[in-house]
Design a protein that fits this description.
Elements (H helix, E strand, L loop, with lengths): L2 H16 L19 E3 L3 H13 L13 E4 L21 H8 L2 H4 L3 E4 L15 E13 L3 E20 L7 E8 L4 H14 L3 E3 L2
Antiparallel strand pairs: 1-5, 1-7, 2-3, 3-4, 4-5, 5-6
Length: 207
């Protein structure tokens, strides 16, 4: 098993077993739209390449480098299969994710998954409820007016709220991070949308 494959399993399988929360999304008219919709004056295939290049070119010292560590195009070997993006057993299914998963692969073929470092959590401005982490799927759909309509869905949303003592911890008794599933963060989605608007050419915001 390659290093990248092991990394993907750590980033996707473990959070899926823990639990997962997904943010509603709209692709075209089928999915719920984000309040800050983005439109890009490029074809979806070109928009995908521009997004992959923008993330790949982030310097190691860039404040977003750990937040967007990997950008994986839909259909690539490292893009997780649908069952790893579904709600864990016993969890309430998310309508937005279910709708996205129901799209045929040819309508998802330009999408990009953004993965943070597995141990990286952050705080959004004004957020006092611990630190946050999530994966993001950027959905790129053909748009007659502007080339590509861009929307975002968050997966494996989690909160880290300090440490507490656990007798039966992973490596024995000790203090461990309190990490729990949470609802997706609209602030994190807005930050990503703002980053994309800054990095991608010919991007504009609008309903």
């Amino acid at each position: 098993m390659t290093t990248d494959r092991r990394r993907l399993l750590r980033l996707t399988l473990y959070p899926a077993l823990q639990a997962m929360a997904i943010m509603p999304l709209r692709a075209l008219a089928a999915l719920p739209v984000l309040s800050t919709a983005l439109r890009l004056a490029l074809a979806p295939a070109d928009a995908q390449q521009a997004l992959l290049a923008a993330v790949a070119q982030l310097p190691a010292t860039h404040p977003r480098r750990r937040r967007y560590r990997l950008a994986i195009p839909f259909g690539a070997p490292l893009f997780p299969p649908d069952y790893l993006l579904q709600a864990a057993p016993g969890q309430q299914a998310d309508a937005g994710l279910d709708t996205w998963l129901a799209l045929p692969p040819n309508q998802r073929r330009h999408d990009v998954l953004l993965l943070p470092d597995e141990d990286y959590y952050w705080r959004e401005p004004g957020d006092t409820d611990g630190e946050y982490s999530a994966q993001s799927i950027v959905h790129l759909a053909a748009d007659r007016e502007a080339g590509t309509a861009l929307s975002i869905v968050q997966a494996h949303a989690r909160r880290r709220r300090g440490k507490s003592f656990h007798l039966l911890g992973r490596t024995g008794p000790g203090r461990y991070w309190n990490i729990t599933p949470t609802t997706p963060s609209s602030a994190a989605a807005a930050t990503l949308a703002a980053d994309l608007a800054q990095w991608l050419p010919a991007m504009r915001q609008g309903a």
